[in-house]
Protein backbone atom coordinates (compact mmCIF):
# COMPACT_ATOMS: atom_id res chain seq x y z
CA UNK A 1 0.00 0.00 0.00
CA UNK A 2 1.32 3.42 -0.94
CA UNK A 3 -0.21 6.50 0.64
CA UNK A 4 -0.46 9.90 -0.99
CA UNK A 5 0.01 13.14 0.90
CA UNK A 6 -0.59 16.76 0.03
CA UNK A 7 2.45 18.91 0.73
CA UNK A 8 3.22 22.59 0.51
CA UNK A 9 5.06 21.83 -2.74
CA UNK A 10 2.58 19.53 -4.46
CA UNK A 11 -1.07 18.60 -4.43
CA UNK A 12 -0.06 14.93 -4.49
CA UNK A 13 3.11 13.29 -3.16
CA UNK A 14 4.18 9.95 -1.69
CA UNK A 15 6.50 11.80 0.69
CA UNK A 16 4.87 12.82 4.00
CA UNK A 17 5.33 16.50 4.86
CA UNK A 18 6.18 15.95 8.52
CA UNK A 19 9.23 14.29 10.08
CA UNK A 20 9.14 11.10 12.11
CA UNK A 21 6.72 9.21 9.87
CA UNK A 22 7.97 6.00 8.21
CA UNK A 23 7.14 5.65 4.52
CA UNK A 24 7.98 3.69 1.39
CA UNK A 25 8.15 4.84 -2.20
CA UNK A 26 8.13 2.62 -5.25
CA UNK A 27 10.79 3.10 -7.92
CA UNK A 28 10.45 6.45 -9.67
CA UNK A 29 7.43 7.61 -7.67
CA UNK A 30 9.12 10.31 -5.60
CA UNK A 31 8.59 14.01 -6.29
CA UNK A 32 9.81 14.57 -9.85
CA UNK A 33 11.09 17.62 -11.71
CA UNK A 34 12.63 18.28 -15.10
CA UNK A 35 15.66 20.55 -15.17
CA UNK A 36 17.80 21.00 -18.27
CA UNK A 37 17.65 17.57 -19.97
CA UNK A 38 17.42 15.62 -16.72
CA UNK A 39 14.75 14.04 -14.52
CA UNK A 40 15.29 14.58 -10.79
CA UNK A 41 13.35 12.40 -8.34
CA UNK A 42 13.34 13.30 -4.65
CA UNK A 43 12.71 10.46 -2.18
CA UNK A 44 13.55 12.22 1.11
CA UNK A 45 14.13 15.86 1.87
CA UNK A 46 14.33 18.49 4.52
CA UNK A 47 10.79 18.05 5.79
CA UNK A 48 11.37 14.37 6.56
CA UNK A 49 14.89 14.67 7.99
CA UNK A 50 14.64 17.90 9.98
CA UNK A 51 16.89 19.51 7.32
CA UNK A 52 19.78 17.10 7.96
CA UNK A 53 19.99 15.42 4.52
CA UNK A 54 18.19 14.68 1.29
CA UNK A 55 18.17 11.71 -1.08
CA UNK A 56 17.44 12.02 -4.78
CA UNK A 57 18.21 10.54 -8.18
CA UNK A 58 19.12 12.27 -11.43
CA UNK A 59 18.57 10.51 -14.74
CA UNK A 60 19.66 11.92 -18.04
CA UNK A 61 20.87 11.50 -21.55
CA UNK A 62 24.27 12.50 -22.84
CA UNK A 63 24.31 16.26 -22.64
CA UNK A 64 26.00 19.53 -21.86
CA UNK A 65 27.89 20.54 -18.74
CA UNK A 66 25.47 21.84 -16.12
CA UNK A 67 26.26 25.32 -14.75
CA UNK A 68 29.09 25.54 -12.21
CA UNK A 69 27.79 26.13 -8.70
CA UNK A 70 28.62 25.57 -5.04
CA UNK A 71 26.76 24.87 -1.82
CA UNK A 72 28.19 27.11 0.93
CA UNK A 73 26.85 24.94 3.75
CA UNK A 74 26.11 21.56 2.17
CA UNK A 75 28.18 18.47 1.34
CA UNK A 76 27.08 16.51 -1.74
CA UNK A 77 27.77 12.97 -2.92
CA UNK A 78 27.44 11.45 -6.37
CA UNK A 79 27.02 7.68 -6.67
CA UNK A 80 26.63 6.36 -10.21
CA UNK A 81 24.25 3.44 -10.76
CA UNK A 82 24.10 3.49 -14.58
CA UNK A 83 25.97 5.05 -17.48
CA UNK A 84 28.80 7.53 -17.08
CA UNK A 85 29.03 10.99 -15.51
CA UNK A 86 32.03 13.33 -15.61
CA UNK A 87 32.33 15.22 -12.32
CA UNK A 88 34.26 18.50 -12.12
CA UNK A 89 35.24 19.84 -8.67
CA UNK A 90 37.43 22.69 -7.47
CA UNK A 91 38.70 22.65 -3.88
CA UNK A 92 38.82 25.73 -1.67
CA UNK A 93 42.51 26.29 -2.61
CA UNK A 94 41.59 26.51 -6.32
CA UNK A 95 42.89 23.10 -7.44
CA UNK A 96 40.57 21.49 -9.97
CA UNK A 97 39.73 17.81 -10.34
CA UNK A 98 37.91 15.91 -13.05
CA UNK A 99 36.85 12.27 -12.97
CA UNK A 100 34.74 10.06 -15.21
CA UNK A 101 32.46 8.08 -12.90
CA UNK A 102 30.83 4.80 -14.00
CA UNK A 103 28.51 2.36 -12.17
CA UNK A 104 29.66 1.82 -8.61
CA UNK A 105 31.89 4.92 -8.56
CA UNK A 106 31.47 7.58 -5.89
CA UNK A 107 32.31 11.29 -5.89
CA UNK A 108 32.36 13.60 -2.86
CA UNK A 109 32.01 17.38 -3.06
CA UNK A 110 32.79 19.28 0.17
CA UNK A 111 30.77 22.35 1.06
CA UNK A 112 31.86 25.59 -0.62
CA UNK A 113 33.60 23.79 -3.51
CA UNK A 114 32.60 24.77 -7.06
CA UNK A 115 31.42 21.78 -9.06
CA UNK A 116 29.53 20.71 -12.16
CA UNK A 117 28.84 17.49 -14.00
CA UNK A 118 28.19 16.29 -17.52
CA UNK A 119 26.31 13.12 -18.36
CA UNK A 120 28.48 11.23 -20.85
CA UNK A 121 26.19 8.31 -21.80
CA UNK A 122 22.48 8.06 -22.51
CA UNK A 123 20.59 6.37 -19.68
CA UNK A 124 22.94 7.51 -16.93
CA UNK A 125 21.74 7.72 -13.33
CA UNK A 126 23.17 9.49 -10.30
CA UNK A 127 22.09 8.77 -6.75
CA UNK A 128 22.64 11.96 -4.78
CA UNK A 129 22.72 12.74 -1.09
CA UNK A 130 23.29 16.20 0.31
CA UNK A 131 23.76 17.08 3.97
CA UNK A 132 25.29 19.71 6.17
CA UNK A 133 24.67 22.66 8.39
CA UNK A 134 23.29 24.57 5.39
CA UNK A 135 20.26 22.30 5.30
CA UNK A 136 19.02 20.63 2.16
CA UNK A 137 18.40 21.87 -1.37
CA UNK A 138 16.14 19.22 -2.94
CA UNK A 139 13.25 21.62 -3.64
CA UNK A 140 15.67 23.63 -5.77
CA UNK A 141 15.06 21.21 -8.68
CA UNK A 142 11.33 21.85 -8.94
CA UNK A 143 11.62 25.58 -8.26
CA UNK A 144 14.33 26.24 -10.84
CA UNK A 145 13.04 23.58 -13.24
CA UNK A 146 9.51 22.29 -13.73
CA UNK A 147 7.62 19.84 -11.47
CA UNK A 148 6.35 16.90 -13.48
CA UNK A 149 4.21 13.80 -13.09
CA UNK A 150 6.04 12.19 -16.03
CA UNK A 151 8.39 9.30 -15.32
CA UNK A 152 10.76 9.97 -18.20
CA UNK A 153 13.19 12.60 -19.37
CA UNK A 154 11.81 15.91 -20.62
CA UNK A 155 10.82 15.97 -24.29
CA UNK A 156 12.52 19.35 -24.57
CA UNK A 157 15.19 20.71 -22.21
CA UNK A 158 13.83 22.81 -19.35
CA UNK A 159 16.13 25.81 -19.30
CA UNK A 160 15.23 28.36 -16.63
CA UNK A 161 14.91 32.04 -17.46
CA UNK A 162 18.14 33.84 -16.46
CA UNK A 163 16.44 35.78 -13.64
CA UNK A 164 15.45 32.51 -11.89
CA UNK A 165 19.12 31.69 -11.26
CA UNK A 166 19.29 34.76 -9.02
CA UNK A 167 16.32 33.67 -6.87
CA UNK A 168 17.64 30.33 -5.64
CA UNK A 169 20.54 31.41 -3.37
CA UNK A 170 18.15 33.12 -0.98
CA UNK A 171 15.93 30.03 -0.67
CA UNK A 172 18.35 27.13 -1.18
CA UNK A 173 21.99 26.50 -0.46
CA UNK A 174 22.99 26.89 -4.13
CA UNK A 175 25.25 29.63 -5.48
CA UNK A 176 25.72 29.77 -9.26
CA UNK A 177 29.12 30.78 -10.61
CA UNK A 178 28.61 32.36 -14.03
CA UNK A 179 31.79 32.48 -16.07
CA UNK A 180 33.53 29.81 -13.98
CA UNK A 181 36.21 28.11 -16.10
CA UNK A 182 37.27 24.48 -15.82
CA UNK A 183 40.96 24.07 -16.63
CA UNK A 184 40.98 20.28 -16.48
CA UNK A 185 40.83 19.77 -20.22
CA UNK A 186 37.53 18.01 -20.95
Automatic annotation (TrEMBL):
Classification via Gene3D superfamilies: Jelly Rolls (2.60.120.10)
Span of domain Cupin type-2: 61-119
Listed Pfam families: Cupin_2
Record's protein name: Cupin type-2 domain-containing protein
Amino acid sequence: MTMEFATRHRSRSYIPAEPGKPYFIEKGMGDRAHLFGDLFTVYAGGEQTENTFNFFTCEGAKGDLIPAHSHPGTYEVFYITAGAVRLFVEDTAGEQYEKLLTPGDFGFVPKNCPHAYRIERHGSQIVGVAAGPGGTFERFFENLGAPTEELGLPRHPVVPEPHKFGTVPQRYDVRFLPGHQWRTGS
